[in-house]
UniProtKB/TrEMBL annotation:
Lineage: superkingdom: Bacteria
Single Gene Ontology BP annotation: thiamine transport
InterPro entries reported for this sequence: Ferric-bd (IPR026045), SBP (IPR006059)
Signal peptide bounds: 1-25
MF terms in GO: thiamine binding; thiamine pyrophosphate binding
Keywords, alphabetical: Signal
Name recorded for this polypeptide: Iron ABC transporter substrate-binding protein
GO cellular component: outer membrane-bounded periplasmic space
Length: 338
């Protein structure tokens, strides 16, 4: 009788474990991400913790639009993007659960963490720089300042991303407005670029392919994208005009998750910022998003990334520019893209 009872308990335990495993597998941690090394990070996290991850990869503009469309019924647990404005806008709508990971931040890391811990700054790059195709523009004619780009000698030669689609580009646009003193002045500058034949594309990759093919000769893109093309051996020069706008890479947890899922999401962020996670981040997209400025003490930037001390950097306050993102993106689409 005891043997039969033991076997029954054992069988029930096995069945319970199987059902538990199936339930866990059916409900992975859902990450909406626009980061180039996200798939690699998801696989590494799952291997390290056993927590399954569903990585939904898309550009930042569509990601933020999807989050808004799902506002009444969120289907995501983590959002991971380039830029703090979109994340701050989500926080203002009560969409994020605050989290303050216990991390030994470096100075940059401390600077980009929001005071309310609504989201986490996990890395940084520069929202936009000037990238020149050296085979198509003689060195004597390279632009060096933002103001140079409205010079008629660059007519029809310049391209950039659409901020409604590309994550780094809205902070770039906002940064020009900050540097010029107002939204109105920034819009006037972009209208000047359009009058000078500015071409617009969806994302860094499309803009840089246009630069490869001679459709444009000068690009306004994220610094990591330009550096990545240089590392591939393409004849590019990355120019850092005064000023460049810092682009925090941010990650946030949905406020609508269960306590269990929230704990798993916190583990994902902890893993991302761990020594192992940072190694994955720097290997997962070696000619793209891996070319970031680390925010964790003891982690050095990859070769080819100039120190921030060597460029003039400004920030676009996400509390100011986050609420304006939708209206400025619409203005850009209506007046610059079309």
């Amino acid at each position: 009788m005891l043997k039969k009872f033991t076997k029954s308990v054992f069988a029930a335990s096995v069945l319970g474990l199987a059902l538990g495993s199936a339930a866990q597998a059916a409900e992975p941690l859902v990450v909406y991400s626009a980061i180039g090394y996200d798939i690699a990070m998801g696989k590494a996290f799952e291997k390290a913790t056993g927590i399954p991850v569903k990585m939904v990869d898309m550009s930042t503009g569509p990601l933020l639009a999807r989050v808004q469309a799902e506002k009444q019924n969120p289907q995501w647990d983590i959002a991971w993007i380039d830029g703090a404005a979109g994340m701050r806008n989500m926080a203002a709508q009560g969409m994020l659960a605050p989290y303050a990971p216990k991390v030994d931040w470096n100075a940059l890391g401390r600077d980009i963490q929001p005071a309310d811990h609504a989201y986490v700054g996990s890395a940084a790059s520069l929202a936009c720089v000037i990238v020149v195709n050296k085979q198509r523009v003689p060195k004597a004619d390279w632009p060096h300042n933002w103001g140079d780009l409205t010079n008629p000698k660059y007519r029809g030669m310049i391209g950039m991303n659409n901020p409604a689609v590309s994550g780094p580009t809205y902070p770039c646009v906002a940064g020009r407005m900050v540097a010029l003193g107002s939204e109105k002045a920034g819009k006037a500058w972009f209208l000047g670029l359009k009058a000078n034949g500015l071409k617009t594309f969806a994302t860094n990759g499309v803009t840089l392919r246009a630069l490869d093919n001679g459709v444009i000769k000068v690009a306004i893109v994220q610094n990591s994208a330009g550096i990545g093309r240089m590392l591939k051996g393409l004849p590019y020069e990355v120019i850092y005009p005064n000023p460049v706008t810092l682009l925090p890479r941010t990650i946030g947890i949905s406020a609508h998750t269960s306590p269990q899922v929230r704990a798993e999401a916190e583990k994902f962020i902890d893993f991302l910022l761990s020594k192992e996670g940072q190694a994955v981040a720097q290997k997962g997209d070696p000619t793209g998003d891996s070319l970031f400025y680390p925010v964790v003490a003891g982690v050095a930037a990859l070769p080819g990334i100039p120190p921030l001390s060597g460029v003039t950097v400004q920030t676009a306050n996400p509390a100011v520019w986050g609420p304006r993102e939708g209206s400025i993106d619409r203005w850009f689409t209506n007046h610059i893209v079309h």
